[in-house]
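Project channel, design review

CF: Before we commit to the Arthrobacter agilis constructs, I'd like one complete example in the thread so the newer folks can see what an input/output pair looks like. Taking PIG-L domain-containing protein.
RD: sounds good, go ahead.
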Amino acid sequence: MLVFAAHPDDIDFGASATIAGWTAAGSSVSYCILTDGDAGGFSAEDRPGIAGRRREEQTAAAEIVGVTDVTFLGQPDGYLEPTDTVIRAIVRRMREVRPDIVLSMHPERSWDRIQKSHPDHLACGEAVTRAVYPAVENPFAYPELEAAGIRSFRVPWLWFYGGPAHLENRFVDVTGSEDVKVAAITAHRSQHPDVERMQARVRDILRENARRGGLPEGRSAESFHVVGINTDETIAGF
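CF: and here is what came back for PIG-L domain-containing protein:
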């Protein structure tokens, strides 16, 4: 699996319990963070070195859920766009990892909770979607990558997190991994002015996801919009 996010901590809010389950089952998971989150935080005193601190926080959070392969593209926080430069870097990373599943933030705005739809989140989703089809599987897109031996590759599945609730069609039961998720989010200490309130809200959201997904009372879930890109149900080239 290859997971994309706009900022450090996005993955941990959106999918870290699911990822913890995957790594525990032996799956290989890689992260690619598009910005350094250098506009995040709540204290002016934290501004010097915030980008480096947020990289360290994301690396620590990833280790909590069993992920050690974390790359950063270093785009400026708050100004992310689905440019050719960004899409090319995403295509390169996909071709290097060659994942069975790509996870990404959603390209569509969510009006039920606007905080999910930071402009950088939407730009991440759009850039990853453009990379997944057709660029990553087209050997004539970014031919310099093909010439360097970074071969084109067909992504089977694209999972979105942090999108509109009405589009979510996969609810992953993460009961038992709630503490791991909360620990991963809490690792981003520069981003939490009220840690206890954040932790309680995260647990509430997991229970609400489970309810929406039809899981039994007392369960927890993370929610996704899953799209088949190259599966048994799709036709190559269409």
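RD: helpful, thanks. The longest strand covers residues 221-228.
CF: The chain has one domain: 2-228.
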